[in-house]
Amino acid sequence: MGVHGLTSYVGEHSEFFVDLQLRNIDVIIDGNNLYHHLYFDSNLDIRHGGDYDSFADITRQFFQSLAVCHIQPYVVLDGGNDASNKKCATLKERAKEKIQAAHSLSRGGGGSLLPLLVREVFKQILTELQVPFVQSFSEADRDIVSLANHLSCPVLTLDSDFCIFDLQSGYCPLNYFQWRNLCKCKDSQECYIPARCFSLERFCRHFNMNKTLLPLFAVMSGNDYINLPAMEVFFSKIHLPTEKSRRKSRKHDRIQGLLNWLSRFADLSEAMENVLKYFKKHEKEDIRQLLSSFMGEYEPSNVNLKDFFQSGMYESEEMKKLKLPQWIETHLIKGQLAPFVSDALILRSTILPVQVENMQRDSAHSITLPIRQVIYWLLLNTAPSSLSPPLNKQPTSFPPVFYEFDRLQKSLKKSSVHVAELAQKFPDSWYALSTLNEAPIAERLLFLFEAFGVSACILEPVPCLLQLPMAVTCYWTQFSEPKLTLQHIKALLLGVTFGELDKMLHIPDPERSHAEVNKIVREQFLKWKENKSPKDYLEIDVAHTFCQWQCCLQAGLHLNQLLCRPLPEPDLTRLYNGTLVHRLYHQLKSSSTPENLLSTSPKIYKLYCSMVQIVKDSTPPGFFQKSKSQRKKNKKIISKLPDIRESTMMDTLPFCSTNRFATLAIEN
């Protein structure tokens, strides 16, 4: 949400703010707002699918700054849409805007588009750092206000709606929260973060205005979800008192004029009657009800998230009405199920987020339609009366239908999607949604592998944390359009291997015989990532191909979460780096230097070979055409490496032999 133009308006008035030195305090953080702010404010990649490792580092630094100042964060994330789906129209407009942004970015233009997996990476960092977080059932704003007032602490966000909410301890805008610039108190030498807090009292005093009028001001001004055409009738008939503004802005003039006009009235009732004077008699009651309804969005919710942070659960009247299975409620609240699952379960409707992809091709999400159909089947596989009537009601068509909003070229298209027909293949009651969490892990694993068309044995050569990404990669290889080359596979898996190498260097390992070589290999990979070439451009079909892989991974995460994680979730903070993968792809076009470099680190090279072989084993013979580029060793790089290997190592090291067990002969 956010009142249009209000953030920039209040930003021009320092008198509305109080300077703070934040330390030894609790803060409530708007999670969605924070991860957007951290990603965009850090100038990270948005064209190549995201630099999740860099984002993870920045997020860690943010929370480490809070810890140094003894600031205890409580993070609240948005959930899905509520059962009324009242914000559907606005969300569709946002989706259309993102498609245009993606199109602009794909052609070298500007735009802001968050990479697909940022939210999941953010949650993993919160878990890693043991930062307490909760996922609201729908939009989190009102829950955040309620929690902040229960705990008497400020809210950290960048949403101008928090200038309207009545917060006991105020709202600290993220753009004034100087977490990178820690200071020390002169007397105690304690660290603090310089911040500014918006003061509702100062704001209202400036306009000599009753604060109960602010929700009416917000609704009349319009925000991301409220746009009443009737208000334009009001504004066309009234002359709003304005002052000379510091810079010319129609939005600012309207904001200031409306605030000045409303300040004439003693209370909400008087203000409402004066607004209604400008409407025809037969319109007044409808307008009154609309305004009153939307003003309710600025009331704190009845949900007490304090209960969750104390006991691990909270009660929601909305959830009670839906009669969801208890384990579903719990997993939604803990953020263990994505809003996608919530929307599909409650609304049977989802909006699929666009990426920077080829707008002339089918949406990158098209590749995962069969996986989503499996998810929809699980969500509908309920025992009679286990869900409330709206959810349990079967549509007239058969099989049941879900609705998806997805990109079609440069527009947003609504499609009806039938669920997968799996009742005969999986007749067991284990797969009923109400008891899915109780199904044996072997059954859930079988279901997951069946969905991606892989067998458990083919994934055995890689660690458990990489088995889901490898299952996803095998699926992607089979169904990607345009068809993949081995170059795509190797670039992706070299990127995954780089993440594993980075993990090895950051996590102490008793077997450190090749630590120096690993450092040199890592440094060279970082150079490929960071050194921009004059010819560095976005090859749109390559980008589209890797977008499809991210869609496959996201669908895999959603299905794995719904099955209560029969496979451990991969470390997304190191799994994929878009910039690096794209550069490796182009590097592999002209040479095999990245692979040859990797071969100097036997343990990590063995992992890479195993992953490449898994993909080869999952495809029919002759699936990959041989690359025309010759594989030449980069003698310049290899010569810099210390000779700490046995003299026969390079001679005996297989280059991803067709026998997937050959790599087991490599010494660690």
Automatic annotation (TrEMBL):
Entry's family note: Belongs to the asteroid family.
Gene that this sequence comes from: ASTE1
Name recorded for this polypeptide: Protein asteroid homolog 1
Gene3D superfamilies reported in the protein's UniProt record: 5'-nuclease (3.40.50.1010)
Any single GO BP term: double-strand break repair via homologous recombination
InterPro entries per the UniProt record, alphabetical: Asteroid, PIN-like_dom_sf
Phylogenetic classification of the source organism: Eukaryota, Metazoa, Chordata, Craniata, Vertebrata
A single GO molecular function term of this UniProt record: 3' overhang single-stranded DNA endodeoxyribonuclease activity
